[in-house]
Amino acid sequence: MNSPEDRTVRAAGCVLWRRSPVDGALEVCLVHRPKYDDWSWPKGKLKRGEDALAGALREVAEETGCTAVPGAELPTQHYPADGRPKQVRYWAAEATGGTFTPTDEVDRVLWLAPDAARPRLTRPADRDLVDALLAVLRRA
Description:
Helices cover 29% and strands 44% of the residues. With 140 residues, it is α+β, with helices and mostly antiparallel strands.
């Protein structure tokens, strides 16, 4: 019999941030997934044997078109997904370039100020990561 640990869906993502090209203010990147009609952080399931941070950066590139420099690890989220436990590890990551191209998986991205991003995020738990990012950036 499989332990709950074996059944856990492992995923990783980033709270992607940048300084606005207009006024230098902090912005975070949200992705819209048409399949779920939700706004969330760029994230996805890890490939078998894939390092979580490598997977998080891969997902950022696939979903946003951005290259990013990872920073501090942020709180891990745990929640049920399709009847299985899911664990999503997150990192703060600064966007360093790239161009977004819509796909079937992510059709839109938004760069928003943290206060504007909070209410746009679909999952309430995702909003806590805004505060975690701000705390990390204050310490930097």
